[in-house]
Amino acid sequence: MSSVTVTLPDKSTKEFSSGVSSYEIATQIGARLAQDSIAVKVNCKLYDITSNITEDSEIEFVTINSEEGHEILLHSTAHLMAQAVKILFPKAKVTIGPSIENRFYYDFDVEIPFTENDLKNIENKMRELASQKQEITRFEMSRDEAIDLFNKKDEFYKVEIIREIDPKENITVYSQDSFIDLCRGPHLPNTGMIKHFKLLESSSAYWRGNEQNKVLQRIYGTAFSSKKDLDSYLFLIEESKKRDHRKLGKELNLFSFDDEVGPGLPLWLPKGTILVEELEKLAKNTERKAGY
C-alpha cells in the first residue's frame, strides 16, 4: 500500500498509509490531541476530522476552543436547532442557517411565528438530541441525486439552492439521525460536543433578504465551548440591552415613536429637544474654533 507524508505545524513530518483518516493521525500523535480536535486543515483548507488523507499534505488540527473551531461549533448548533424544529414542527420548511459573529441563525417557513415558549421547547429538544451523541456524517452526491433527495422531503427551498449550483459540482449533505441538511461543512463529529448554548430570540426575515419573497421566521442562538464563555456572552447581551437607545430614550423621556409617523423616526420630547439643541450648539462651536 502506498504511503503519504504529512507535515505538521512545527514542520516535523510523519508517514502514514494512504487513505488514513485525520482522526487516526491525531490519535497516533497523542490521545489528548485526538480528543480536542474537531476538524483539520489540509493544505490550508478546512475538512471534517474524519476526512481521509490521500496525498502528501500539510495538516493542522483545529480544536473547539480556536476561532475556526468556534465557527464550526456555531454552525453545527444551527443544524441541531433545525433538527429540533423539524421534530417539533414537522410542517416547517428549512432554508439557510449560517454562523455569524458569536451567533448563528436559521430561517424557517412556518405557518405561525415562533413564541417565547416555542424557543424554550426547541432548546430543550436540542439538549435531548445533543445528549444522544448522534454521529454527524458527511455524504457526497450528484446534483440530480440531491434534488431528488430534498424533493422527496418536500424541502423546496433546498431544491432552489441546489438548482443554482453548477451541475458538474458534487453536492455535500450532512446527516444526524434522520435529519439531513445541505451543507459544505465541516461539522463536529457528533452532537454530544454541543453542550453550552442558548436560543436568544426570533424575528421575521424575507427569504434571501428580498421583500418580494415570503416572510420567514428566523431564530438566533449562540454556543460556546464552555459554560463560562457562554455566561460571559449572555451577560454582555443583557448589559447592551440596558444601554439600548430605544430603552434609554423612553426611560429618560427623550423621545417616543409612533407607527403613524413612521418606524425608526423619533418624536423629540421637551427633554430630548433640549439635548438635541445643546449638541447642535456644541457642534457649531467646535467647527467655529476649528476655523470652519
In quaternary terms, these chains amount to single chain
**Superfamily at the CATH H level of the largest domain?**
Threonyl-trna Synthetase, Chain A, domain 2
Terminal-residue CA separation = 78 Å
CATH architecture of the largest domain: 2-Layer Sandwich
The portion of residues forming beta strands comes to: 25-35%
User: What's the overall geometry?
Assistant: globular
Strand order of the largest sheet: 2-1-7-4-5
CATH-assigned fold name of the largest domain: Threonyl-tRNA Synthetase, Chain A, domain 2
Tally of DSSP helical segments: 9
Backbone structural class:
alpha+beta
Radius of gyration: 25 Å
Compute the number of structural domains.
3
For the largest beta-sheet, the strand count, sense and barrel status come to: 5 strands, mixed
As residue ranges, the low-confidence spans are none
Helical amount among residues, as a percent range? 25-40%
* Topology, number of strands: 17
Mean pLDDT: 91
CATH class of the largest domain: Alpha Beta
H/E topology pattern:
EEEHHEEEEHEEEHEHHEEEEHHEEH
Key terms for this structure?
292 residues, alpha+beta, Ubiquitin-like (UB roll), Threonyl-tRNA Synthetase, Chain A, domain 2, five-stranded antiparallel sheet, 28% strand, globular, metal-binding
